[in-house]
Specification:
Helix content is 75%, strand content 0%. By secondary structure, the protein is mainly alpha-helical. It is globular.
C-alpha cells in the first residue's frame, strides 16, 4: 500500500494535481512520524535505519484513517456553506481512494458484528448502552482495520432492531 501511495504521489506531481499531491504528502508524513515513533519506542539505537524499513499496510491504513478523521472533524467545525468545506470534502474523497477495501465493505463489518453479538449473547448486559460498547469493543479487538464509526453505526442499528423484536 505504501508503494501505491508513492506511485500516486509521482502521478499527482506529473499531472500537477495539487489537491491529490497535498493529501498524499500529508498521509506520508503521518506514516513517517508513526514509523519513527515506533522505532524510538522499540529500538532507539536503530533510529537512523528506520527510513529503510517499509511501513506495514496496517500502518498506512491507520495514517489514512487518521487523515480522514481530521478532515471530517474540520468539515464539521465550519458553518454550512463555508468556502473550505468543499476543499475538505474533496480531500476526503482522495483519502477514500487509499483505504483498504475491507474498510469499505459494510457486509463484512455486519457479519463481524453478528458474530460478536452471538458470542456475547450469554454475557448480556442490563442496559443497551453498555451492551453497544461491549459489542463494539469485541468487534474492534477481533477485526483490526474496521472503521470505528461504521462499526458503531452497524452495532447500534442491529441492537435497536433486536430490542424492538423482543
Amino acid at each position: 500500500m505504501y508503494s501505491k501511495l508513492k506511485t500516486e504521489l509521482v502521478k499527482a506531481m506529473k499531472t500537477n494535481d495539487v489537491l491529490r499531491k497535498m493529501v498524499i504528502r500529508n498521509v506520508i508524513v503521518q506514516i513517517e512520524k508513526k514509523q519513527q515513533e515506533k522505532v524510538l519506542r522499540d529500538k532507539p539505537e536503530d533510529a537512523a535505519a528506520s527510513k529503510k524499513e517499509r511501513p506495514s499496510d496496517e500502518m498506512v491504513a491507520a495514517a489514512v484513517r487518521k487523515e480522514l478523521k481530521e478532515l471530517s472533524k474540520a468539515v464539521k467545525e465550519f458553518p454550512e456553506g463555508h468556502k473550505l468545506i468543499g476543499e475538505y470534502k474533496a480531500q476526503i474523497d482522495v483519502c477514500y481512494d487509499f483505504l483498504p477495501s475491507i474498510e469499505l465493505d459494510t457486509e463484512a463489518i455486519a457479519a463481524a458484528v453478528d458474530a460478536s453479538i452471538a458470542a456475547l449473547a450469554d454475557t448480556e448486559s442490563k442496559t443497551p448502552e453498555i451492551k453497544v460498547g461491549v459489542v463494539i469493543g469485541h468487534v474492534m479487538r477481533n477485526n483490526k482495520g474496521f472503521p470505528g464509526a461504521e462499526v458503531k453505526r452497524i452495532v447500534s442499528e442491529k441492537l435497536v432492531v433486536e430490542d424492538v423484536a423482543e
